[in-house]
Amino acid sequence: MLPRPKKRLGQHFLTDRHYLDRIVGAIAPAPGEAMLEIGPGPGALTERLAAVVRPLHVVEIDRELAHALRERFPPDVVTVHEGDALEFDLGRLPEGLRVVGNLPYNVSSPLLFHVASFADRIRDCVFMLQKEVVDRMAAEPDTPEYGRLSVMLQVRFAIDPCFRVPPGAFSPPPKVDSAVVRLVPLGADRPRASDESRFANVVKAAFAQRRKTLRNALRGLVEPEAFASAGIDPSRRGETLSVAEFIALAVTS
Ligand code: SAM
């Protein structure tokens, strides 16, 4: 029997075996891997992963669900970290970490930013998210979906949308379609921002008011000369800039 879902924790439990199989197939767990599942809930995915990867680390905020998982699995099979994944230090787990989960949709963007801050230690991530969020993560410039989330993730990861999952695969069904996506950190030779926090500020300001030109949106943050040296017309809008152009524009003078 599934526990009564708590809406405020974004609880939609995966119940469809076909999609469970497909997610396990996308993750392709192998013995000896270091793996963290975010939001294990009642443990449908957990059970499948822990049959292969031991110990499987899980971080779950819901006290009752975390307790039930501890009752069900010995700690050397599933190590339960009870708490908020947004505050969980992924640096505690071995390098080459794989991060997976059917994420709580209400905190999916902050969770993606949090996980991205540990990209150096991560081998890959396989997440189920709202399909609309996956579309934004993978979006190209000059499309309505392209925004801060696209740029901040694409600067660190190759993003590969895998497949769609309908609402009926969950209990209770969410109001929206879901999708599974894989994120693989880019190599050390990737184009990098010279100052990552400045890059983040420039990207944030460029998308804060999408209709503004870069000249106006970045006033006080990016000097006119910086546009010239990056070869970017300041009358363009942020949504037209590629990740590489954002990197060029955010160079510290
Ligand atoms: N993995 C399960 C499944 O597929 O059936 C549950 C997925 S459900 C969409 C999201 C899970 O994340 C819930 O178990 C919820 O309690 C948990 N959760 C919500 N917010 C969280 C947070 N900030 N940190 C850790 N877990 C969280």
What labels would you give this structure?
253 residues, single chain, alpha/beta, two-stranded antiparallel sheet, elongated, Helicase, Ruva Protein, domain 3, 10 helices, binds S-adenosylmethionine, 2 domains, Rossmann fold
Shape, per Cα inertia axes: elongated
Please tell me the CATH architecture of the largest domain by its name.
3-Layer(aba) Sandwich
Instruction: Let me know the CATH homologous superfamily of the largest domain.
Output: Vaccinia Virus protein VP39
Strand content: 15-25%
Number of strands: 9
What's the arrangement of strands in the largest beta sheet?
4-3-2-5-6-9-7
- Gyration radius over CA: 20 Å
Q: Give the CATH class of the largest domain.
A: Alpha Beta
Give helix % range: 25-40%
> Low-confidence segments, ≥5 residues, pLDDT <50?
none
The H/E string reads: EHEHEHEEHEHHEEEHHHH
For the largest beta-sheet, the strand count, sense and barrel status come to: 7 strands, mixed
The residue-averaged pLDDT reads 96
- The end-to-end span amounts to 60 Å
Count of discrete alpha- or pi-helical segments spanning 4 or more residues: 10
Structural class: alpha/beta
What is the CATH third-level topology name of the largest domain? Rossmann fold
**How many domains, as an integer?**
2
